[in-house]
Amino acid sequence: MASEPKKSVSFGGALGTGVSGFEVDGGDVVKLVLQFLHEQGLTRAARELQEESGVALNTVENKEHFAADIKHGRWESVLPAVSRMKLPSSIMSALYEQVVVELLECREVELAKEMLRNAPPLQLLRAQE
User: Fold this and answer.
1) Are the beta carbons of 29 and 9 closer than 8 angstroms?
2) Cα separation, 51 vs 53, whole angstroms
3) Which of 31-40, 69-78, 103-112, 114-123 comes out lowest in average pLDDT?
């Protein structure tokens, strides 16, 4: 169960150094740790921290490649990347709807039906109706 990170983390200055204390948003600290874990290849630890804290990085490895994948409809690359992000359900639903439309345009009716049945954002939409 995700628990909210503390609102802020206080850092006190060291005695005699002239450095005063400061506060940092708890979510920012978690994001910094998540970034470090990803850079070190500790993806399971990052996934656990993200799940437990409820804080997500919402980043991709290469922004230009990600944008090109979206532009060219390479959904097999885009969908796994966005599934790791915490995006609003309206954005996720719109993305999956676009994929379904493109599958139908390519006459991939069975695959479109399968996605409609099993894609979590589309299941959420169906449950809300």
Assistant:
1) yes
2) 6
3) 114-123
- Name the 3-class secondary structure at 11: strand
Secondary structure (DSSP) of 52-88: HH-------S-HHHHHHHHHTT-HHHHHHHHHTS---
d(CA 52, CA 69): 30
Kindly give the interhelix angle for 120-128 and 89-105, rounded to the nearest 10 degrees: 110
Q: Which amino acid is at 88?
A: P
Q: Read off the pLDDT of residues 25-44 as tens digits, 9 standing for 90 and up.
A: 888 888 889 989 988 989 89
More confident residue, 121 or 78: 78
